[in-house]
Amino acid sequence: MNADPDGKLVSALVRGVSILRCFSNKTQELSAKELMDLTGLPKPTLFRLTETLCELGLLRYSERLSKYVPGLGLLSLSSPVLTRLALRQLARPQMQTLADLTEGQVQLAVGFRRELCLVEQANSLGNPIFRPEVGVRTSLSRTASGRAYLLGMPEEEREAYLRDLRAADPQRADWLGHRLDDARHDLAENGFCRSHGDLHRELESIAVAMSKPQDGELWVFAVTLPVYSPLCGKLETEVGPRLRTLVRSVESVLGASGLS
Fold this sequence. Notes:
Blueprint lengths: L10 H10 L11 H8 L3 H13 L3 E4 L4 E4 L2 H12 L2 H16 L2 E8 L2 E9 L20 H9 L2 H14 L1 H21 L2 E2 L8 E7 L8 E9 L8 H23 L3
Antiparallel strand pairs: 1-2, 3-4, 3-7, 5-6, 6-7
Helix pairs in contact: 1-3, 5-9, 6-8, 7-8
């Protein structure tokens, strides 16, 4: 739960959202006890909130599992968000072309504040790479997309994120600081950030952020290849230039269409 030093947030709403945030693509069902442990909410409060969320269709209690699962109402809430992101439709054909050329995966993630989420992906035919679902959060520290996003942030926001991380986990903050130094060097030399296989050792990714935010949101494109791909040895000469061209092309279309 985010700190609220100014007392501007509605506590009941914050607590309800904190329950929904406990679920992810890897954690799809949770008991009341697990939710209490994750949120720190007392039992009476938790049950009041889960009952309300169930009534709204945002949560559902599965009698078969004796656990809570995300409700279908969440889908209707996410639909307007995806519809609003017109850039997905503009970028999709070029993303598919690049995925086919590299026989890999091309992803588009959008970030706001300290959240970076996958909103579109294209895969080549027979691509063996793991395919995350649209809407999944992207790690800011362990992925090429996350580092490209962090370096695209205003400096004061990035430094605030690193300060908070250092207070919570100094070792991880130091490690990320070194990785960001590597990412700055890669950006200067090659125009992209690398994953270094930090999240998935069997995959290599490079990422390029758009040069400026769109309506306050920063967009990041990435190419992911299996480590055995011959193109992993040609990131600087072939894959990187193609990815940069894709990003500049999308920016050009956005400018011409007035969507930026």
